[in-house]
Amino acid sequence: MSTDETVEVITMPVDEEKIVKKMVAEIADSNEKFMSQSSQDMENFKRIVPVLLEKGIDNVNLTMFDEGTKSKLLNALGEEYIRRGNMNDSVKAFILAGNRQRLVEVGEHYEEVGLFANAIDTYRLADAHEQLLIIGKKCLENGHFADAIKAFRLCNDVENLTKVGDECFQKGKWDYAIEIFSAISSLHKLVEIGDKCLRERQIGYAAKAYELAHDKDKLSALGDVCLREGLLATALKAYSLAGNEMMVTFIRENFGNKLSSF
Known about the structure:
This protein starts with 13 loop residues before the first helix and ends in a 7-residue tail after the last helix. By secondary structure, it is an all-alpha fold. The chain has a domain of 156 residues. Helix 12 runs antiparallel to helix 13. The protein is elongated and about 80 Å long.
């Protein structure tokens, strides 16, 4: 698979994701004894696989089989999807089979070809925290900050998230730095970002950082700077977030005709 190939990533709401992960765990536990399949078993199931392929993984009904047979069929289907290069459907098959090991191996394949976001999503579905931690560190070393953040957040790894945040701070990657320090509730770091952004006249980032830090004094000070520089809408928003009703009233009374979009 080329690293330039566009691959569909499975996304799902948080609640659905929890259900899927719970399902994988339960199926894996109950079907563990079926995971070791003889080569003869696989050959027998491969005769059914073409029919399942034609029907599609989303439409397959295997309720007539016992759990062991169903698991083996889904694993055979997943292997055939891999052979055909359809990694997305192979992941679906292995989820339904509760085959964490193969999910991890698919994730490793994505990682080998540089599709880190896909790898992280697959490790997430396998609940493979060790692999998430490893790929997070790899992404950080290679400057893939968004992927590193995602992996470390899935692991709830505050220490490594802080490292990513500090590096993003040093490199001026404010979006990432603000996202991280907001996620780990590091209010003093958010204020530090806001201060630096204000010094560099990155007003929007400063406002966002102070807002997420819930620092009313900093927001009022930002409002003062914006007012002096004629940034009336930004000043009004900063004063409003700070609860500075006196300055909110002052701007509305004196510059209401100049406020076009607030």
